[in-house]
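Hello Y.,

Per our agreement to keep a running log of every chain we model this quarter, I'm adding this entry. I've kept the format consistent with earlier entries: sequence first, then predicted structure.
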Amino acid sequence: MVGALLALGGCGGGNRSTRTQSRPNAGSASVKPAAGLTRFSDPGLLSISYPSRWSRLPSGDPQVPLLVSSPDRAEALLLRVTRIGLAVRTVTLRELPKLRPLTDHIVGADPNAHLVQPVREAVLGGLPGFVYVYTATGKLRGPGIGHVHYFFFRGQTLIQLVFQAAQSSRLQAAAHDFERIEATFKATPVPVAAPRKR
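Predicted structure for the entry above:
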């Protein structure tokens, strides 16, 4: 999905929202990851694998259970898991537009973030959500860091996958690694509540 997004190009404005097709979740999560990948699992919630050559970094944030980067620190992945209060138990594509202000607010909280593509709806691992492609300048005001930022809704949980490239110009080159990681994402279905006995 990442490669297709970047190949689409386009720029500016998060006022439009289009839909991005993604690969369906290929069955249940495998205990053994593919060769060259290291698997991370949050039992009962999700699993994802990243290149074994990448290093896991301390996050210091309980909502960020996974933070990894490539050996040269040119590419990185951050996984954030947050409990949120929603009026619906299961989010579908129909409800997504109502949740757009929430994700807009999260990305817009960084005044240095600048969208380079329209925001798109996306589905990954059976979960609906949005993807934002943007650059954000750091404290040194150097070349903007490229971000491909996914928001997925699983019941009362918001899952964020943030792929980063040290320079926005490297996003296309990093697409292969990002897509390889993305393809391993598996989400555990939300348990169905048992009907109340009358």
